[in-house]
Amino acid sequence: MAGTGSRGRAERRSAGELESEVLATLWATERPLTPAEIRTGIGGGLAYNTIHTILKRLYDKGLVLRDADGRRGAYRPAKDAAELTAEAMHDALHRGPDPVAALQHFVTGLSAQDALALRELLAGHGE
């Protein structure tokens, strides 16, 4: 059957899923990675061109930086995972008409451990 090879597997993943996988691969190392190294890290038979396209999208969004120093064509994340998550949370909070109501729903859905961590962070923030 045509189209059932590795390319078919790659097409089933959304661009957002692939971007997340590329970022996770970059966050898992301390050094910039080439598209070939990222491809190996992700696995799943993705084409080199697919990885390159995802890296270009991430670069255009300001989420990865191209390493101009040293290895040609190596990429590193522009932000760590916590920074990117916090930015997404801020964006989501301000997308709706009532940020306070959104915060209320968010906070009531926290686990006891996360609620405690939030209280501790808020208590320390005012110092």
UniProtKB/TrEMBL annotation:
Pfam families, A to Z: Penicillinase_R
**InterPro entries noted in UniProt:** BlaI_family (IPR005650), WH-like_DNA-bd_sf (IPR036388), WH_DNA-bd_sf (IPR036390)
- Superkingdom in the source lineage: Bacteria
Keywords on this record? Answer: DNA-binding, Transcription, Transcription regulation
> Which SUPFAM superfamilies does this one have?
Winged helix' DNA-binding domain
Q: Which residues form a coiled coil?
A: none
Reply yes or no: does the keyword Transcription apply. Answer: yes
Similarity-based family: Belongs to the BlaI transcriptional regulatory family.
Task: Spell out the protein name for this chain.
Answer: BlaI/MecI/CopY family transcriptional regulator
Please tell me the species this chain comes from.
Streptomyces sp. 900105245
